[in-house]
Design goal:
555 residues, alpha+beta, six-stranded antiparallel beta sheet, five-stranded mixed beta sheet, 17 helices, 55% helix, 16% strand, rod-shaped
Length: 555
Amino acid sequence: MTQPSAWDIGEKKKLLIFQRSFHEHTLRMRVVLSQLPLSVCVCLSAILVWLFFPATLENPLFLIFLLSQAFLLALCIVVPWHRLPFASFLIIPILDMVSIAFGREGGQEALTGLSVLVVLPVIWLCASGLYPRLAIVMSFLGPLGIVWVPVFLHNEVSEQALTKPLLFPILILGIGVSVSVLTLSMVRQQRVLEQKDEALKEALDISTKQERLLNTVMEALPLGVVAVDGDGHDILMNRRQRQTHALATPPDNDDPNESQLLVFDIDRSTPLPPDRRPVRRAVLGERFTDQLVWLGTGEGQRAFTTSARPMLDDAGKFAGSVVVFSDVTDLVNALAARDDFVANVSHEFRTPLTSILGYVELILDDASLDAHSRKQLDVVRRNAERLLTLVSDLLAVRSGQIVIQRHTADVAELVRGSVTSAEPRAAKAGIRLSMDLPDALEARVDSSRLAQVLDNLVSNAIKYSLDGGDVEVAAWEDEDFVFCRVTDTGMGMNEEEQAEAFTKFFRAGGVRKSAIPGVGLGLPISKAIVEAHGGTITLESEPGRGTTFTVKMPA
């Protein structure tokens, strides 16, 4: 590789000088550049005189003009203007006017109109933006002196002699005024631009700091975060999310699209359809919370809950989304271990409970048994049956399979039966029970299972209502669906408790503090029974105001 020559370096410096904005140069260079146009014009004038009017070069006044111009250019180059008062360089254009006066007088016979050169120092004075009033006055007095001083020196003073050249200084004055107005306007614009530039620099500095802070926070988060635009392109991804993405990347594909990633459903083996994958749902503008997915395969497979929130532009239109991935593998494994433990314990309970019930039945069949003993054995049998039912429900919830046997039943009668059974407990607690039912409401349901749901909801309404409260049970039919509603005026639940109400073993904080008995399985079992019928169960609640459960099932 050849080194650049001195000529190349010099040419580059020259180009750099003329490519820069004028205000970017040093003060000395700006003074030189302001004087340079006049110096070039003087050189051209000298060449023309030398070629066509050599005798003029012997004129002392013209020689003073040439030498003074050379001296003034050298002065511009040599003087350290930045060390002098800032406006001191304005002496140069004023001296230029004096120099041009000598040139006009000495070269008038050779070159006519040499006095026009005065427009260059006038432009310099007015374009400097310094002392604008003085600059305008000098733009008139300078040219006026150039045309009037010779008249006085030659003693040719007359009205005609003074008036005849007066148009020239007036014209130069007009040029000076125009330049001054334009300069002042440009100075104001430059100040505005400088203020905007400062504001932009401050905004950029703030934005840079915020971006640095955002990147630091994103990299420190234990969650995977990815932001996508409206077209699905990644615009932000933190370190944890890059690791998560690498986990879902197939081994034989370094750059997979969303449909090729190893994303599986909660069974850990069924690939999620592309339109149900978290990032794709986010790109479609969906808002969701805690979607459970499994990423990767084999021993390295991990469980993640995903949530997405859309981003909107100033017009309120969808502009992208932020998706958060949280690794919950340990929690999912712990829940699975808990369910396995519950299932194992339930299996172990079932055998002795069945044996107890069998022997109790045998003893009760003994005709010689006295009434007192029979009463005590009835208590044993009732509680053993209750335990066996609880164990069966635990196993059903664990497996997620509740068998129902549909048949035509009167739902209104099932509601009446549940309310009638609950009346003694309601009366003891001071609860007012009421019903809003049609005479008959037939539907194809599992009557025993639906009665279990109704008993559970009515029992909870009474259990969690304060003394003197109200519980209303209603049922009706709408199109092809049957609805049952249980409303109480009890303690109610907040939003967080409502979100967990159907979770196994969950009990609200107020319930735990009040020592109301229960294990937190009634609502999960009720939900499983309703969903086995192809229906839904929902709740509305407000702390201190009560709760409403609504069951909707196909008729």
